[in-house]
């Protein structure tokens, strides 16, 4: 994919000015999520850290575009865009599906000789750990039930048929990407990997979280927070402190 200003604007969103920021954090959302999910994080970290949030196709202002239904597609399109953001120290933060996409983006960057400062992998099992999951094959009611069970912040909105009709195609496509992903092997990352997960997250066991250590030759940290899959909603101050601690010069 050729990198143009229009393409970058479609995929990458900046919610708060942080021109003098000493570092840049690219944030990738969960299945069904959007760039705006990171609005509070962007506000809290500015102006020291510039947050650039990724907007996947198929939702909100990109709802007329076809969803990408594989992690590989998403990562391939993002690597070139993110590679243009390296005029400042660059870190990646991905939640759930976004963590897997961020991992593949990090691999693509390192293949180009660009080593991120750190990869924050939130709410997601290690890439090499497979689960037999098929939420994307359920009917609409089954997908909504999954979102409700996980405690997604927008779950109540899906009770409105008009909203569900707009949102569910992207959710289904994202779940397909997450559930059909298979790690292809290859060199370990050089960058540090920091894993964050809720201690009651049904999507990630402690063993599955710890297995991220196998995917980097750099520093590895594992942090548990009280809560489930969307622990971030209640543990934002602690997560933000962890991110701030990884600014250049902090280690």
From TrEMBL:
Keywords: Hydrolase. Transmembrane segments: none annotated. It holds the Pfam family Thioesterase. Coiled coil: none annotated. The keyword Hydrolase applies. It comes from the Bacteria. InterPro entries: AB_hydrolase_fold (IPR029058), TEII (IPR012223), TesA-like (IPR020802), Thioesterase (IPR001031). Residues 26-247 form the Thioesterase TesA-like domain. Belongs to the thioesterase family. This is Thioesterase. It comes from Actinacidiphila acididurans.
């Amino acid at each position: 994919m050729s990198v143009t200003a229009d393409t970058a604007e479609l995929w990458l969103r900046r919610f708060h000015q942080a021109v003098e920021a000493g570092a840049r954090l690219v944030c990738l959302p969960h299945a069904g999520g959007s760039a705006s999910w990171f609005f509070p994080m962007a506000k809290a970290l500015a102006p020291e850290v510039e947050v650039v949030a990724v907007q996947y196709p198929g939702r909100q202002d990109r709802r007329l575009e076809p969803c990408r239904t594989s992690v590989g597609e998403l990562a391939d399109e993002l690597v070139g865009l993110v590679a243009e953001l390296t005029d400042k120290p660059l870190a990646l933060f991905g939640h759930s599906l976004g963590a897997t996409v961020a991992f593949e983006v990090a691999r693509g960057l390192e293949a180009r000789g660009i080593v991120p400062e750190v990869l924050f992998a939130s709410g997601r099992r290690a890439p090499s750990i497979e689960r037999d999951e098929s939420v994307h094959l359920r009917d609409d009611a089954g997908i909504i039930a999954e979102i409700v069970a996980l405690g997604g912040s927008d779950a109540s909105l899906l009770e409105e048929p008009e909203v569900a009709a707009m949102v569910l195609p992207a959710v289904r496509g994202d779940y397909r990407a997450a559930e059909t992903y298979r790690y292809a092997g290859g060199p370990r990352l050089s960058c540090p990997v920091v894993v964050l997960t809720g201690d009651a997250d049904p999507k990630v066991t402690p063993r599955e979280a710890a297995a991220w250590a196998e995917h980097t030759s750099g520093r590895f940290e594992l942090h548990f927070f009280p809560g489930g899959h969307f622990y971030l909603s209640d543990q934002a101050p602690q997560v933000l402190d962890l991110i701030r601690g990884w600014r250049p010069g902090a280690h």
